[in-house]
Specification:
Strand content: 5-15%
Number of helices: 13
Largest sheet: 7 strands, mixed
Strand order of the largest sheet: 2-8-7-6-5-3-4
Oligomer: single chain
Bound molecules: pyridoxal-5'-phosphate
Structural class: alpha/beta
Radius of gyration: 21 Å
Length: 371
């Protein structure tokens, strides 16, 4: 036996191999008024009905919430025509991403995702004792053949964000179905459709049909983006009942708080607010893409509520230079070097003032104006 006994509790080695998730910045030292365009939040905020429901919950703070989040699951089920027994809610979809890894990966199993896929996937895979496997992308877009080529006997879960963050690109539903058809039946396909409501392409689908017709597909959704409720942490999954059953065994018994249940249900019933947020995005996303591209900055054609901007490598014009310039003017974008995209910044669609402001600031930046 080794004489070197640990002198303090030692985390598992896989945990210490994780690079902690770094959220988007929300402040700039010395700049009073900032436009936060770094976390893909809704510039229109939450539905007034959701805010009202949140406030009405204030009298309930001493009581435990409904651990099954029934009111919210029923509201979601009604909106999408699904059975509430096939829905599970999470403390953000982040929680569900993590629970799926914990439930389906044994130590040494592989969890697969694509090159620029959402960073929570490798974190969840490692935390569960699994091995993250990355499939290369083409044109900043997930590549079904590359993903299928990485599947081995050890693969237990495939995460696909569709559309993906931070690239904004998507796979047409036919490609998602081809991916699913190529997976062995014991591999779980987790379709993360956090930005589904923003997509205006008619070859896109979030995945409901695939969940309904198979035993190994889960669709993840969130209230953090178009519903403007990121602060309340509400995500949900639609899955076969055997998956719901397994997840329910490991989730916290009261993983959603009462304010989240009430506000989430009110939000999903407010079709008008949802439509306004979608219309706002449909107007400004293409405008931003076109205006920014005119400046000589490559823009990946994203379909979510954000754009990936590629800056030139020349000193003075890099993504880091642009980040400094924009921050000094009060525009906070997201640096995405942690995704292997050091030449890029990700910009969330904001209100008109912020959108026009960023284009003006980038125009000056590309023309060589000092910060
Ligand atoms: C692709 C994707 N999935 C999931 C999430 C997490 O969302 P939530 O706030 O529901 O945990 C995000 C948030 O940035 C995301 O971009």
């Amino acid at each position: 036996m080794s004489s070197l006994k640990p002198v303090r509790p030692e985390p598992r080695a896989e945990v210490m191999a994780i690079d902690a998730y770094v959220p988007g910045k929300s402040a700039v030292a010395g700049v009073a008024k900032v436009h936060k365009l770094s976390s893909n939040e809704s510039p229109l905020g939450a539905s007034p009905k959701a805010i009202e429901a949140f406030r009405a919950n204030a009298g309930e703070l001493a009581n435990y919430p409904d651990g099954s989040a029934l009111r919210l699951r029923e509201a979601i089920a009604k909106r999408f025509g699904l059975g509430p027994e096939q829905i599970i809610c999470g403390n953000g979809s982040d929680e569900l991403i993590s629970l799926l890894a914990h439930v389906y990966l044994r130590p040494g199993d592989e969890g697969l995702y694509s090159q620029y896929g959402f960073l929570e996937y490798p974190i969840a895979i490692r935390a569960a004792g699994g091995i993250p496997i990355v499939a290369p992308e083409k044109d900043y877009t997930a590549d079904v053949d590359a993903l299928l080529a990485k599947v081995t006997a050890k693969t237990k879960i495939v995460y696909l964000a569709n559309p993906n963050n931070p690239t904004g690109t998507y796979l047409p539903f036919a490609e998602v179905k081809r991916l699913h058809a190529g997976l062995p039946p014991h591999v779980l396909l987790a379709l993360d459709a956090a930005y589904a409501e923003y997509v205006t392409r008619n070859d896109y689908a979030a995945g409901i049909e695939l969940v309904a017709t198979s035993q190994n597909v889960v669709m993840l959704r969130t209230f953090s983006k178009i519903y403007g409720l990121a602060n309340l942490r509400i995500g949900w999954a639609y899955a076969p009942t055997h998956v719901i059953d397994a997840l329910n065994r490991v989730r916290g018994p009261f993983n959603l708080n009462g304010a989240a249940i009430a506000a989430g249900a009110a939000a999903i019933e407010d079709a008008q607010h949802l439509a306004a947020a979608a219309e706002h995005n449909a107007r400004w996303l293409p405008w931003l893409a076109a205006e920014i591209a005119k400046l000589g900055i490559d823009v990946t054609p994203g379909v979510g509520n954000f754009l990936l901007l590629h800056f030139p490598p020349q000193s003075g014009k890099t993504a880091a230079d642009a980040d400094r310039h924009l921050s000094a003017k009060g525009f906070i974008l997201r640096a995405v070097a942690a995704y292997g995209l050091p030449d890029c910044l990700r910009m969330t669609v904001g209100l008109e003032k912020a959108n026009r402001g960023v284009v003006a600031a980038l125009t000056a930046f590309m023309a060589g104006a000092p910060s």
